[in-house]
Automatic annotation (TrEMBL):
Protein name: tRNA/tmRNA (uracil-C(5))-methyltransferase
InterPro entries: MeTrfase_TrmA_AS (IPR030390), MeTrfase_TrmA_CS (IPR030391), SAM-dependent_MTases_sf (IPR029063), TrmA_MeTrfase (IPR011869), U5_MeTrfase_fam (IPR010280)
One GO BP annotation of this record: tRNA methylation
Any one cellular-component term (Gene Ontology): cytosol
Xref: Pfam families: tRNA_U5-meth_tr (PF05958)
Upper taxonomic lineage: Bacteria, Pseudomonadati, Pseudomonadota, Gammaproteobacteria, Pseudomonadales
Name of the gene this protein is made from: trmA
HAMAP family xref list: RNA_methyltr_TrmA
PROSITE patterns the record matches: SAM_MT_RNA_M5U (PS51687), TRMA_1 (PS01230), TRMA_2 (PS01231)
């Protein structure tokens, strides 16, 4: 079956409910009215993951209600996913149905696509994958025009690339990104561009330096680096660090120093709690930080990191959880006020939303 979208006419209603929720959460801090950035109502999600369910001797794409792993909803297409994913779904299904090497003990399929049209398919198995599998997968990759990754316990075979290539437009410039399989990327590319542009404008052109925490693959780092003198960026994931370094090189951006540290570790370093070998060649005192940019996980910033960012004149904060955003602002409100805020509808038809604030010292 196809899983239909809600009535598109209801999209503006659910977006308005999110706006009101954000306004209520930020009301105690005298926030200005948020800028609201909408999403396409369909074909907006660039990645998708499906379990497979065996029925009538065939494997089908399946999804489950939260908490119920025994009552699958079998699907043929997925309207919220990108047009490229919906194009690939039946083609991939036909391929595994025609090939025992591809279908035997296949239990999960993951798609990763881009606005630029690139695609990567990951096939996950409850068995060892071998040369017979690789030969079939190489034919599949050629036929579909995608990269393919096979995963089984302790083994990963890459056919093509282990990442997709994206291009995002900010301020009239196309920034090119490598987005690795298995690493975090923004799921809604259209809204991601709007987030990047908002952050770019909120930062403005400056003659001082930027500290960025949780930089990931450099999603925000690339455009923001063009607005400041220098950037010190931190990220803990090795995969994301390697992707960020490649993205900086691919875009010819040379004013960023990237250090593999968590936000908590950087806080300890700046507070002189303990030294880190990864900072041995970094002259922290040589930076003139005017702004700190943070895009933390859903849990938000811990109390110590909040106290760290309080030192900065300006705090540019992107959040995927408005409740933890509000909790962090409550800790910072005595020293900083909200100058700008925004709602980004990264996740239509759900309660989830992305938001942003620019906090400026009182």
């Amino acid at each position: 079956m196809s899983r239909p979208l809600p009535d598109p006419a209801q999209y503006s209603t659910q977006l308005e409910a999110k706006r009101q929720r954000l306004v209520e959460l930020l009301a105690p801090f005298a926030a200005p009215a948020p800028d609201v950035f909408d999403s396409p109502s369909e074909h907006y999600r660039l990645r998708a993951e499906f379990r497979l369910w065996r029925e009538a001797e065939q494997r089908h794409y399946a999804m489950f209600e939260q908490g119920d792993k025994h009552s699958p909803v079998l699907i043929e297409d997925f309207p919220i996913a990108s047009a490229r994913i919906n194009q690939l779904m039946p083609q991939l299904k036909a391929a595994w149905q025609a090939s025992a090497a591809l279908s035997f003990k296949l239990f999960q399929v993951e798609f990763l696509t881009t606005l630029a049209g690139d695609a990567l398919v990951t096939l996950c198995y409850h068995r060892p994958i071998d040369g017979a599998w690789q030969a079939e997968a190489e034919q599949l990759a050629r036929a579909l025009g995608v990269s393919v990754i096979g995963r089984s316990r302790g083994k990963r075979i890459v056919i093509g690339r282990d990442h997709v290539l994206e291009a995002l437009q900010v301020a009239g410039r196309a920034f090119r990104y490598r987005q690795p399989e298995g690493a975090f990327t923004q799921p809604n590319g259209v809204v991601c561009q709007k987030m990047l542009q908002w952050a770019f404008d909120a930062l403005g052109e400056r003659d001082d330096d930027l500290l960025e925490l949780y930089c990931g693959n450099g999603n925000f780092t690339l455009p923001l680096a063009t607005q400041v003198r220098r950037v010190l960026a931190t990220e803990i994931s090795k995969t994301s660090v390697n992707a960020a370094l490649a993205n900086l090189a691919d875009n010819g951006i040379d004013n960023v120093e990237l250090v593999r540290l968590s936000a908590e570790e950087l806080t300890q370093a700046l507070n002189g709690v303990r030294p880190f070998r990864r900072l041995a060649h970094t002259d922290l005192a040589g930076y003139d930080f005017g702004t700190v940019f943070v895009d933390p996980p859903r849990a938000g910033m811990d109390a110590d990191t909040c106290e760290l960012v309080r030192r900065f004149e300006r705090i540019l904060y992107i959040s995927c959880n408005p409740e933890t955003l509000a909790a962090n602002i409550a800790q910072l409100h005595d020293s900083h006020r909200i100058e700008r805020c925004a709602l980004f509808d990264q996740f239509p038809w759900t309660r989830h939303m992305e938001s942003g604030v620019l906090l400026v010292r009182r």
